[in-house]
Amino acid sequence: MPEVLPREGIRVGLTAVDRWDAVRQCGAVLQELGAVEAGYTDKMLDRERSVSTFVGEGVAIPHGTSEAKSLVRETRLAVLQFPAGVDWGGQQVTTCVAIAARGDEHIAVLSALALLLLEPDQAEKLRSSSDPDEIHQLLESISKDIA
Known about the structure:
By secondary structure, the chain is an alpha/beta fold. It has a single domain, classed as Mannitol-specific EII, Chain A (3-Layer(aba) Sandwich). It is about 40% helix and about 20% strand. The chain has five helices and five strands; from the N terminus they run E-H-H-E-E-E-E-H-H-H. It has helices at about 20-30, 40-50, 105-115, 120-130, 130-145, and strands at about 10, 55, 60, 75-90, 90-100. The protein has a five-stranded mixed beta sheet with strand order 1-4-5-3-2. Strand 4 (about 75-90) and strand 5 (about 90-100) form a beta hairpin.
């Protein structure tokens, strides 16, 4: 079974012009990982237009609409970090946890991520670490919850 959060899905030190650019970058990484088919990024943008994926603590969780599930090959996460921050509809986002999930697996992802963000030290590490291995270790529990 492929890893839900592969190390090559963690990107640090990125920049984005705006949240739309950040979402497009998230979709591109999910596609590069083989998690989604072409068209998934458009569904991520549709989701963002209908409701912000900002969840607090400088984190957004871009993901596709319900209709996008047919474009998901395998459940995967990608973490993209934007140290300078991205304006997310009036909120500042430094970290995107992009989600491609089949079925209802996104619920386990959201639940585990919410628990992590409730811990200030862990939330800070997620936002500020420039070490992909540290980020991978921090989010490893989410992968285990889904696997």
